[in-house]
Amino acid sequence: MTLMLHAGANEIDFEALRAIETPPATPTHVPVEHHRVVELARSTLGMFSHEVRAEHHGVTPDGMRYFGLMELRSKYTGYTDLVGLRNSHDKSFPISIGFGSRVFVCDNLSFIAEQSVKRRHTQNAKLMLPGLVMGMIEPLAIHREAQHRTFERYKHTMLTDQTADHAVMNMYREGIINLQRIPEVLKEWQEPSFDAFNERNAWRLFNAATYALTGRVVENPNATPKLHKVIDSVCEHIT
């Protein structure tokens, strides 16, 4: 799980989160309780039989900004479904809920997920947000099954170093990684940090790229779809 708290926020448990006071509403800004965002995500996930295995919650010292992650139990192995949460009482950012196999939430205001919904703190936010979250979570099972087939294809597509180099340059051309990230991706391709990626296949290259992307301080929600497009193109070329 990727919840980075290095810009002033501190990790707390859910009971402490519930105890945080919410500022009064104004005509143009209606704060939503931090714990309410968590409970909304939990209940909607439960409606569609998704089990929350673990949670992490963080808030700034003044309680104004909240950051969270939920880890879901998946019947597939090799990766985990994650739900990222973000909420503020000081108008710094909207209510945000995202999910994917790679989710990055940071108290420096980075929020990266494969799919997400965001809603401003308005009078209708509490009424509209459940429907928006339900619309995102309902197709999660279908999305995950399709992603599982994609990942299995990656695992069965073997790559040469030359093909991997070409793909990494395409990642740079597509704006997925910057110039400084190229050596990081190539290093993870040559010497993976995890033993699970010992085969020189498209799965190893995909994870080399996502490993390098983790920890970026620039929000780029299009990075993952673009990365899939590059890896898919490599697989199509080989097959």
Descriptive key words:
239 residues; alpha+beta
What oligomeric state is this? single chain
Q: Give the number of domains.
A: 2
> How much beta, percentage-wise?
15-25%
| Topology pattern, helix = H, strand = E | EEHHEEEEEEEHHHHHH
Number of β-strand runs: 9
Derived from helix and strand composition plus strand pairing, the structural class reads alpha+beta
- Regions with little confidence, pLDDT below 50 for 5+ residues: 103-112, 215-219
Strand order of the largest sheet: 2-3-4-5-6-9
State the major sheet. 6 strands, antiparallel
Shape: elongated
Verbal overview:
This protein is of the alpha+beta class and 239 residues long. The chain folds into two domains: 2-138, no CATH class; 156-238, no CATH class. The protein has eight helices and nine strands. The model is unreliable at 103-112 and 215-219 (pLDDT under 50).
Task: Please write out the topology.
Blueprint: E1 2-4, E2 10-12, H1 14-18, H2 34-47, E3 52-59, E4 65-72, E5 81-88, E6 95-100, E7 104-106, E8 111-112, E9 115-119, H3 125-137, H4 140-155, H5 161-173, H6 182-190, H7 202-213, H8 223-238
Parallel strand pairs: 1-7
Antiparallel strand pairs: 2-3, 3-4, 4-5, 5-6, 6-9, 7-8
Summarize the structure.
The protein has helices at 14-18, 34-47, 125-137, 140-155, 161-173, 182-190, 202-213, 223-238, and strands at residues 2-4, 10-12, 52-59, 65-72, 81-88, 95-100, 104-106, 111-112, 115-119.
